[in-house]
Amino acid sequence: MKRISEYSPAKSYKRRTSSEDRNKIGNTTSILKESPETEFSFLDYKREINKIFTYSNDTNTVTNSLDDFWVFVKKYESMLKKAGKPVFSLENEENSNCESDTLKFSKFDCINFSTNIKFMDNVCDNRVKKKLDKKIFDAILNVVSIYLDFKNKEKLDKLKKLRQTQKDLPVAKYRGEIQAAVKNEKVVIVAGDTGCGKSTQVPQYLHDAGFENIACTQPRRIACVSLSKRVAFETLTQFESKVGYQIRFEKSKSADTKICFITEGLLLRQMSSENLPNYDVIILDEIHERHLMGDFLLGVLKCLIHSRNDIKLVLMSATINIKLFEDYFSAESAVVIQVPGRLYPIDLHYKPIFIEDKPTRDDRLDPQPYVQIMQLIDSKYPSDERGDLLIFMSGVQEITSICDAAQQYAEKTKKWIVLPLHSGLSLIEQDKVFDYPPEGVRKCIVSTNIAETSVTIDGIRFVVDSGKVKEMSYDSSTKMQRLKEFWISKASADQRKGRAGRTGPGVCYRIYSEQQYSDMEPFSTPEVSRVPLASLLLLMSSLGVNDVRRFPFLDSPPEEAIENALLELKQHGALSSNEKLTSLGKALANLPVEVSLAKALVIGSATLPPHKRDSALALTAALGIRSIFTTRAHRDFECENARKPDESDHGDPLTLLSLYCAWLSVKAEGRGGRDWCRRRGIEEQRFYELTKLAAQLRGLLQDNNLMESPEPENMSSAERALRHGQMKQLKDMRRQYKQKAVEESKRRKRLKVDSWEIVDDKLDEDNVLDIRDIEFRMTNDAQRIRALISGASASSGRDLITLKIVLCRALYPQVAIADEFNHCKSVSEQLYHTWSKPFVFLHPTSHFGKHPKTLQLTEADIQTELPPGYKSKLPVSARHQLLCYLSLLETTKPYIVNSMRMPAAQTLLLLSHSIDTNMGFTRIVCDSWLLLEFPYPETGLNLLLKAAKLRQRWDALINRRLADANPNKSVETELQKSKQTTKTSYEQLQHELSCDISSYMNCDVYYTIKRLLPGDLKVLYCGGEEAHPNIDPNPFEQGFECRAHEKKGGVYVTDNIVYNCVLDTDWSYNSYQEIYGVAWTCPDCDMALCLSPLERLQHKSFMCSSRTEEKKVEVTKTPRENKPNAKEYKCEICNEILYMTPVEILKHKKNCKSK
Amino acid sequence: MGDKKSNVDSVEVGYEFTCTSCSLSEKAHYKGTKPPFSRNIVLKYPSYVMKDPFSPTGKGEILMLGSDCSICDRPVCISKDCSIFYKQIFCLNCAQNSIEKFPVEIKVKINQCKKYITYIINLTFVLYVVSCYSRLIYECFLL
């Protein structure tokens, strides 16, 4: 759980005592100065006493904190002086001698502690004026006892206070009940509102009840860390590892960890990795939030507890919709334990805005009602009564406009500090909401629904609820995410209201009517119905869920969404056509990023040469994390300018990559980086995350054998020594930082009234140690950073092209084509069409959104001299471009996000799932969406042939990589395919492939490109009635057996290419006839014949008498022998002896018979 | 020298310490006068000691929780609401009962625990009332 505030009692307690101490010390020092020097003081012997203590060679409370001890001595002496008692007198000794006299009182008898540090005489030297003798030393030992006693009492009070707060929690009363229920039942639901203490206490109760390996899931990473710290403190094991956490990039878990806080996603991955740690209880916390992973985890665990009797399940939720969970686990007869929350009464006011009240009629948000509430609070509640205001708004824009208005009011009254809170802010800015305002000033926090559950701010007394929320929804048919404003649900309205009553009675104002409240949905839509499901379904398949449609979801997502997600997975090749997990799918499921990004990684690691793989890793990681840009990045002109040198005109993904490389080189030079990032409007934290994610992905790829493990680094001894010294220094710095952080947490920061100005805190930030920088430098030495830079940079040439096509292949079919009228429209009106959704815009912050000209053809690009007979309104050019994009997002308009430009025809022919052509290869249709027309004869054919060959080689390479990754699955067909390639080394194949790809991508071919509309598609194909003769031999794919396409007509020549199904136009028919008519001379054998384009191809690859023949034979023969289940077979019909697999034998028989 | 041995002991042997007055319940690592975690610190009266949970392990810092009352032998924590220390530990109840044996300063201290005293007064009052009633009930019963 996130309650940072809940932990403050201990902190505030600490703070109080230390400040008291400081006051006392202040007093004592002033007294000491006044007192005559002649008086006795232990302080005069400090040097010698310290010496003896340190020589005593023991660690205890005194020797650990000598400074603190002397402060205490000072205070003690001054207290004695005040009381008029001598600091040192011989009386002490007398007392200790006459123990029999019980009525004679000595205060030292009231102390249980004593020390037996031996007095040593030899330490004295002549420099000291006053000599320490045994008597004085004994006296100081008495003081030591008093000090020990004092410290002990302090600690005991701390302990008692801790136990008291634990006892006061509402959940404490249910301790026995919870323990008994978990012991006796399989599923227990603990329902209690925020503040009842369930998240911190229940794991402890279960541990006390004898459970040894407790997993407790949390939806948020930060909650895992803070909860594990808190629970460790409460179980008095903060310096042991009994309580630990495990999140995506870090863990603090060891063999003796009994309670482990873990994120939901990570627990799921643990389950998929088939070595689920031996948990005896799994606690799912915050299940009412209905996160995707949480919901799924519930389903998985519901299945798990049927097969495993030794696992108990505890579900914890707020008191929202408990019925749902109870019903879901009704078969397991779940026990529900309800814990009342600790909520103070809240005054509720409805303050709807009436339409006639609106000053203007436009849709803009009117901040007046919100400011009026601030005025109301000022007039109604005296300013010496504490209590802050929390305003819930739907989105960043709304927050900004409210903040501006509130700020104006605050400047007038000087009674408010206005703070925005949303996830787009930098972490430092976010943390400000936890600081304290000065006396008589209230905080006004304007927040998104992040403050509803994720962030808990203490001291909120007033809540203003706008009743709106911006939520992401997902349209699975167009693969578009939508960010739209909705009315909130009753449950979240109540949750928002509840935020006012956490520390005392509060007030909630709702900017809507009671009627509107009763019209609200009872519960918010669970995430599972709002997000893309592809990753989830893939994870499910990898977990062994056979039929995802029958998975027991808590709330089933729409059927259509599941079907579309399955289709997407099939398109990516992660699932086979009968919905079985392929080896690619298996590899993808292991990577904790989106499916398409995971695919980019797998393809990248197969395709890219080893030294360039970091580029794919960094690129994927950059696209996998949240946006690196702060809100300022696109508003501030200076930021934009500063970023300009690193901006890539190939598109946003490559800009990200080059920014990352630039940051790395800043780091390599040791120039900090924080300032560099601030100047560019970048959140540096994201880069650290990127680095961590990339490292994690690399580790996963290596674990799955998709990438070679690195060779051990060879450093020279000098380098090693240098690094060693560096590490030592860094560790020191980290220790320093931690100490500082502890000190800082003792005194909470106080806000200044004008603290919303960011200007003044810039200066002192620079001197502060940056822990992330330190940790970054600890894990990455200079050499490593240099390797990262050289690996990640792909600025030009072959590397860039290969990287782009790798990403594009992974993202396909997410490509967009420009509207034909874009050249006569303004920058903001540029329209694009994607395969799934026509009419989308470029996001204004994207590179092409700002520079759409890069995507348009120039006059020079357009070919004007066309072959005779060809007429088209469309421009003929070799420079048509496509946009390949990461995602679609609808806010005010549908936008393309994270786009990258690609040469059109080359990309389409290489990546399209289905390519249809006419007889003469002049009209080629890609994915029944885009029509390419090649006016010059043979250009289309050549390009398509090149593409088909490249695709085969590329597929083979990837399949070989995947097959090598899991060698035990040798029976699979993919492996057989991969074995066909002769065993040349990966590197050579990769090198050849990337050379060929880059020359292919760069070749100049003139064509037109047209988007086909549904009307066009009806008259495009010749249809299935006309039977087409088989193409034999097949020049596109050796040995591929052609089959007819039922609907379109024509025949498959490869899995992706259908030949002769596109109807000819007059022009293309003429050109075909023309080609047929003219004699063609083979460039290799100089034979002149009248051949159609296909026949020419066949001649070239099969008939031609030159050396190609031999090669082909070699290629066709060798692989057959390699097949594991192939055997010698003599065909009775054609009398040939062949090496074939049983399947191939059957095929062959059939063929022979039909002949 | 003997440290290591006692250290091992302390790991194996734990004491469930529960204060009979405030019901503070903790696991103590050691009971006695010479806590093994810290050589130079000795206790005058055998007490329940745990390694200080608020400071890193191995620093030798200890937390003394309490001792068994020297009169009634029931465990009691060192909080001033529960016990008083004068050469030995006394739970407040026993201290009250044998208050005359203490020097004046301690008597004052014992009396200062107003909370405790009011509690005692209440208790005696209740006891008195109960005894009265019981006599009454008894008499009624007899009749």
UniProtKB/TrEMBL annotation, chain A:
The keyword ATP-binding applies. The keyword ATP-binding applies. Residues 179-338 form the Helicase ATP-binding domain. It comes from the Eukaryota. GO terms for molecular function: ATP binding; helicase activity; hydrolase activity; RNA binding. PROSITE patterns: HELICASE_ATP_BIND_1, HELICASE_CTER. PANTHER family: ATP-DEPENDENT RNA HELICASE, ATP-DEPENDENT RNA HELICASE DHX34-RELATED. This is ATP-dependent RNA helicase DHX34. It comes from Parnassius mnemosyne (clouded apollo).
UniProtKB/TrEMBL annotation, chain B:
Residues 17-110 form the Cysteine-rich DPF motif domain. The chain crosses the membrane at residues 116-138. Keywords: Membrane, Transmembrane, Transmembrane helix. Pfam families: C6_DPF (PF10170). It comes from the Eukaryota. Belongs to the CDPF1 family. This is Cysteine-rich DPF motif domain-containing protein 1. It comes from Parnassius mnemosyne (clouded apollo). The lineage of its organism: Eukaryota, Metazoa, Ecdysozoa, Arthropoda, Hexapoda.
